[in-house]
């Protein structure tokens, strides 16, 4: 029963925070629990992130498939300073996402803070939720920085 209550709270918080992804995910999980499909939850936990990343990557690559971006566009972008900075930004972001994923595998209960922090950012900072991996990557970075500072001070 505790899991259902938490999911309902997440649904309400997602609605208040105007986060349809959190609301939808919590609704789907609640329905799965209520219709006794819990046996699929371990598979979803194991493969859900992979499927989510797959669909996210497909969404990003659609302009290539629709031929909205061609080789000339790529060349023009990668020969300008903004394009080179974008390339570096993409590489750093994916590196941080990898660190965030590793942190979530080691300490999965961190997702609670990440979700609540994301909701606070949406409500009070008018932010846009980009997902738990980037939030986890930033958290992993901040944890390393605070650990480094604590080691220097002691």
From TrEMBL:
Q: Which residues cross the membrane?
A: 6-36, 48-66, 78-98, 110-127
Q: Which UniProt keywords are given for this protein, alphabetically ordered?
A: Cell membrane, Membrane, Transmembrane, Transmembrane helix
- Main location class: membrane
Topology relative to the membrane: Multi-pass membrane protein
* Location(s) in or outside the cell: Cell membrane
UniProt family annotation: Belongs to the UPF0756 family.
Protein name in UniProt: UPF0756 membrane protein ACE5LO_03810
- Species in which this protein is naturally found: Paenibacillus medicaginis
């Amino acid at each position: 029963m505790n899991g259902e209550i938490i999911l309902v709270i997440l649904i309400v918080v997602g609605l208040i925070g105007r986060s349809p992804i959190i609301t939808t995910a919590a609704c789907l999980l609640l329905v799965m629990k209520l219709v006794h499909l819990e046996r699929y939850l371990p598979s979803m936990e194991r493969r859900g992130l992979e499927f989510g990343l797959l669909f996210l990557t497909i969404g990003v690559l659609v302009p290539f498939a629709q031929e909205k971006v061609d080789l000339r566009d790529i060349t023009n972008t990668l020969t300008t300073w903004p394009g080179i900075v974008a390339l570096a930004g993409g590489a750093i972001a994916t590196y941080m996402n990898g660190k965030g994923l590793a942190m979530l595998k080691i300490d999965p209960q961190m997702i609670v803070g990440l979700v609540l922090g994301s909701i606070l950012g949406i409500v009070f900072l008018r932010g846009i939720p980009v997902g738990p991996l980037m939030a986890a990557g930033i958290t992993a970075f901040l944890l390393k920085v605070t650990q480094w500072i604590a080691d220097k001070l002691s």
